Amino acid sequence: MQKPSEQKSARDAAGADAETSAAPAPLDGARVLAYLETHPEFLAEQAAFIAGLLNPARESGSRVVDMQRFLVERLERRTRELETERDQMVALARLNLKSQTRIHRAVLALINAQSFEQLIQAVTIDMPVFLGLDVAALCIEAAETPPPRCETPGVRVLEAGAVDRMLGSARDLLLLPNVRGDANLFGAGSPLVRSMALLRLKFSPLAPLGLLALGSRKETRFNPGQGTELLSFLARAIELSIRTWLDLPR
């Protein structure tokens, strides 16, 4: 038979075992993550508390380096960089949309031409207005040497092989900034030109090569770094329009 003191010790031990068995498992990262997965609203409800944990005020001695401050500054700097990149992308998208709208207006003018003369006028007179340029010229190579003079305003006659000499045989488009306008291309409008775009025009295997010359007084209006898809589309539209009006074979 147990003595009273032994019975008390047994009860204490049993109580301790019960408390030990009833104690929750220690809190660790896995349990925290499991709780957050099942309670996704918890972080939103504790936003102010979490902000204080992420950026608490600290008082450090003169010989203690606060690494958190450097991390926060780096994140803020990266945020500013991303905002700048976003603003640049938005500005570029707006510029592309503006250019696309201008090209569409120019192409609609080609389609709307009621005669071949109106088509030439749409290319040489209306197109600079639609594209925000100063001068445009439609150039055609001639088989004769010297090339005959053309009396149609905005239309220039070039020597045979001139297009390949200017663009190279393998290139259909050339953008040139900071140039002097070529009188052979732009005629009386050449003093205005400080940058230009040259686009090869292939009307038909039975027709001479052509060249669309676009000029601007802005020195960097045309430059090698800009996209050329819209200008190439414009050149193809001009080719198709002239081929259709002159009934040329493809």
Any overview of this molecule?
With 250 residues, the protein is of the alpha+beta class. The chain has a domain at 89-246: GAF domain (Beta-Lactamase), CATH 3.30.450.40. Helix content is 53%, strand content 12%. The protein has nine helices and five strands. It has helices at 4-22, 29-38, 41-45, 47-54, 67-112, 116-131, 162-167, 183-186, 229-246, and strands at 135-141, 155-158, 173-176, 195-201, 210-216. It has a five-stranded mixed sheet with strand order 2-1-5-4-3. α5 (67-112) runs antiparallel to α6 (116-131) and α5 runs parallel beside α9. The longest helix is centred in the middle third of the chain and has 46 residues, at 67-112.
In short:
Helices cover 53% and strands 12% of the residues. With 250 residues, it is α+β, with helices and mostly antiparallel strands. It has a domain at 89-246: Beta-Lactamase (2-Layer Sandwich).
